[in-house]
Amino acid sequence: METFWQDLRYSLRTLLKRPGFTFVVVTTLALGIGANATIFTWIKAVLLASLPGIEQPEKLVEIWGATRNNSALSSSYVDYLDYRDQNKVLSGFDRPPSATS
């Protein structure tokens, strides 16, 4: 533990001898920490927040198609209509609110 305190005192002395370098280091750390906090706050708010109107979000599923070489494909609206009409397993597979017929 004594060597830790010696190293800390040496670091502080070195930083105080070079105020320009210290300013750059402290500014870089502050910008990095601030950017990380901002990004993670945004990710939490946009991607991880619960969806409004969804009572049981753990029961949501996402349906993707697949090609012969197992690469994922998003589904089209025509695929959705086919899934909806032939669905025997999933509940709440209704027409989305934005779609009109």
What do these coordinates show?
With 101 residues, the protein is mostly helical. The chain is 53% helix and 4% strand. It is built from 3 helices and 2 strands. Strands 1-2 form a two-stranded antiparallel ribbon. β1 and β2 form a beta hairpin.
Summarize, please.
By secondary structure, this protein is mostly helical. It contains three helices and two strands, in the order H-H-E-E-H. Strand 1 and strand 2 form a beta hairpin.
**What is the radius of gyration?**
27 Å
Numbering strands along the chain, what is their spatial order in the largest sheet? 1-2
Order of helices and strands, N to C? HHEEH
Our estimate of the beta-strand percent is under 5%
Compute the average pLDDT: 83
Q: Based on helices, strands and strand pairing, what is the structural class? A: mainly alpha
Helix content: 40-55%
What's the overall geometry? elongated
> Which parts are unreliable, with pLDDT below 50 for 5 consecutive residues or more?
none
H/I helix tally: 3
DSSP E strands, number: 2
Distance between the termini: 74 Å
The major β-sheet equals: 2 strands, antiparallel
Break the fold down into its secondary structure elements and pairings.
Layout: H1 2-17, H2 19-46, E1 65-66, E2 72-73, H3 77-86
Antiparallel strand pairs: 1-2
